[in-house]
Known about the structure:
By secondary structure, this protein is α/β, with parallel strands linked by helices. It has one domain: 3-Layer(aba) Sandwich (Rossmann fold), CATH 3.40.50.1240. It is 33% helix and 19% strand. The protein has 6 helices and 6 strands; from the N terminus they run E-H-E-H-E-H-H-H-E-H-E-E. The chain has helices spanning 31-42, 57-70, 93-96, 100-107, 120-136, 149-159; strands at residues 3-9, 50-53, 74-76, 141-147, 177-183, 186-194. It has a 6-stranded mixed beta sheet. Strand 5 and strand 6 (186-194) form a beta hairpin. Helix 1 crosses helix 2 and helix 5 (120-136) packs across helix 6 (149-159).
Amino acid sequence: MVKIVHLVRHGHHPLLAGILCGRIGGVELDELGCRQMSVCAGNLFPPPTTIQSSPQRRALQSASILAGHFGLAVEIVAAIDELDVGDWTGRSFDDLNKDPDWHQWNSRRGSNCPPNGESMQCLQRRVVLHLEQLRGDAADGTIVIVSHAEPIRAAILHYTNIPLDHFLAVTVDPASVSTLYFDRRGVHVAQINQRAVV
């Protein structure tokens, strides 16, 4: 019995390089992001039997492009939502780079938390719990999970036994695919950050 889970980051959007979006409502893909997701669909093999998405608009758009390609519906799953970055939501990276707490969090992701936000430990717990529930499901198949950089990174760090403080060891580009194989022996990371080349 083998189950395949493709962890897919949403496509590009206009705020990607300048703003820490977190859970800002209404952030949508741009033309590049839509093209990336169309290319991404061709990188998913075997074809998915299920597509799940974070509740965020940019993830839902991305999942809908994939779902249209494969003729599937999209399931919205709160457990794979973006990290809640609290008071930093919507701040520019230029502004955050002046904040000592931002640097502290990025040097100690395993033990720090965004102000009034969610820790990486809490994020990792909820994402891994969801993945383990999928693993325990008796049905075989290929599942696509469309999410964000931090939830995907948290999952990969867990299954590769890399501490959260070393989060930059895992790159998760827009519209990239990272693949997990579930079998009786455990969870195996088959690929990380297969990029959609547009």
